[in-house]
Amino acid sequence: MSSMMFQGMFFFFVLILISIPLGWYIKETMQGKIPKYVRFLQPLENGVYKILGSVSQNNMSAKRYLLSILILSILSFVFLTVLLMTQHFLPGGQNVANMSLDLAINTSVSFVTNTNWQAYSGETSLSNFSQMFGLTVQNFVSAGVGMAVVCTLFRGITQKRTKLIGNFWKDLTRSLLYTLFPLSVIVAIILISQGTVQTLSQGVAYQGFEGQELWLYLGPVASQVAIKQLGTNGGGFFGSNSAFPFENPTLLSNFVENISILLIPAALIVTFGFWVKDWKQGRTIMIASLFFAVLAFVGVVVSESFGPAFVNVAESMNLEGKEMRFGIGWSSLWAISTTAASNGSINSMLDSFTPLGGAIPMFLMQLGEIIFGGAGSGLYGMLAFLILTVFIAGLLVGRTPEYLGKKIDAFDIKMAGIVVLTPLMLTLFGAMAMTMHPDVMSWLTNTGAHGFSEILYGATSLANNNGSAFGGLLADTTFLNLLGSLLMTLSRFLPIVAILFLAENMGSKKKAALSEGTLSTTNSTFVTMLIIIIVVIGALSFLPALALGPIADFFSIK
To answer: Most exposed of 121, 378, 394, 507 (fewest Cβ within 10 Å)?
Structure first.
């Protein structure tokens, strides 16, 4: 037990240590202040702007910024859908079938929205061409969009009397060229050194122990795994994701991949502190995020180590569904990292966790994917909670709520409310729709409370753009493919709309000077209040559903 706690503390120490310089670097590059050691990439950046033309030159209003995002997303969706439905006729697609319309739509929406929900097994359902030019490309683009959007909110908070929030094409280009691409190259090289597969070969034939002819699937795995983790995407090249040795061969590769999941979300918190020129503002968010992440890690480890004795009486711990090379410690750490960061990848089977061990990762998603969260999307979700906390605190003390000198008005609260409530309501709607479907029992491998947990986890994952699966739920049905597409689309784009207009409204305000009556947003009282509001909103929204699922499952075990 003590060794597992040390693993977790060491992991979070390394994460913070790396995120500080990376956070400063992201701030510099996103503001156009390119450090000397990456200036060799500037000709590529300028080349992109020449190709795009005048659209990449001027700052944009919220409407124009949103229109640019929607144009890119629609084009990406159409391209990826057509690619998946015609992959059999494209290079290297002779051994795979074309995807059905509903599955292609679901997969395209999934990768365009940075959800990466997979209702298929990658190695058998996709060609290497589809993996590289379809999914991997979207892994980069969807993460870049999230980083671009959060930067608009940074500008809105710091600017004065302007409704212009930046240029989407510049923000996207800089996030891809200076952050996501270089980091992906570094991580991919490390993974290749550890044995992660990287080849253009579709695979090799071999003979099994009983003389049967078998096929070993191969492909450009390391390059896709690097960006799937760094971009908080999570879609695996192989069906068993990062539990598979060809994706995650060693303890070092496991550590690097796990750090990669939280690295950019953590660094963006530091970026925010540097951007607003007040590192204590970033510290507030970092403390709140670490509080939930560390508490969740301890909770999962304790549950898996001292859970119901029926799981493994001989060793009094739950090793079912876990890779023995990772054990409970690294499996638990991955489970909370992937659900805190809307990543969705797995290195163990969550459906085999104890009831409470599975409930904790589920609840992290149900908080709105704000505990570190996705690349950019997690931080702008947390900032919405922070603005809501400032508003409530202002009401309690009888002062006009302000955040960093900007007065919080009714419009700001409405936009923050959309960001906070959208994934919450979509989760409950999705779980209701699945439960009421007449074929629901045929989709499940379990019944009772555990079966409902599988449904609730699936709805939570889709409605929070996470993409991880509890297991036990047959995902590839026409109804679930279309329902999931709706949930993923609304959960991605409604908060983006709200954040862009929130940024515009904040930027149009003048900045008031600090006074003795200004509410501090960096002291322990405010951090505690932020944590309480996050917990209360999550608990009030999902405690009844959790009581019917994992909590009832826990008490039903004898």
So the answer is: 121
Q: Give the helix/strand (H/E) hosting 419.
A: helix 410-436
Rounded-to-integer distance, Cα 322 and Cα 420, Å: 33
| Tokens describing residue 518 | 């200004």
CB atoms inside a 10 Å sphere around CB 212: 8
Per-residue pLDDT of 339-388, as tens digits, reads: 998 888 888 888 888 889 999 999 999 988 889 988 888 899 999 999 99
d(C-alpha 293, C-alpha 116), whole Å: 22
- As a whole number of angstroms, the distance between CA 533 and CA 291 comes to 14
Half-sphere exposure in the Cβ direction for 285 (13 Å, CA): 27
- Measure the CA–CA gap between 179 and 185, rounded to whole angstroms: 10
CB 124 within 8 A of CB 217: yes
User: DSSP letters of 275-315?
Assistant: HTT-HHHHHHHHHHHHHHHHHHHHHHHHHHHSS-TTS-TTT
pTM of the model: 0.94
- Distance, in Å, from the CA atom of 432 to the CA atom of 353, rounded to the nearest integer, reads 24
User: Which of 517, 174, 529, 535 has the alpha carbon at shortest distance from 364?
Assistant: 535
Greater confidence (540 vs 435) lies with 435
Concatenated DSSP letters of 380-416: HHHHHHHHHHHHHHHHHHTS--EETTEEP-HHHHHHH
Using alpha carbons, select from 420, 451, 418 the residue that is nearest to residue 435. Answer: 451
Residue-wise DSSP of 166-210: --HHHHHHHIIIIIIHHHHHHHHHHHHHHT----S--EEEEE-TT
The answer to whether 415 and 501 have CB atoms below 8 angstroms apart is yes
C-alpha 401/C-alpha 531 separation (Å) is 18
Calpha distance 281→286 (Å, rounded): 9
**What is the distance between the alpha carbons of residues 273 and 266, in angstroms, rounded to a whole number?**
11
**Token digits for 10?**
């060491």
Separation between Cα atoms, residue 233 and residue 215, nearest integer Å: 28
d(C-alpha 514, C-alpha 352), whole Å: 53
Asked whether the beta carbons of 146 and 168 are under 8 A apart, the reply is no
| 166 close to 60: Cβ distance less than 8 angstroms | yes
Closest CA to 268 of 30, 26, 28: 26
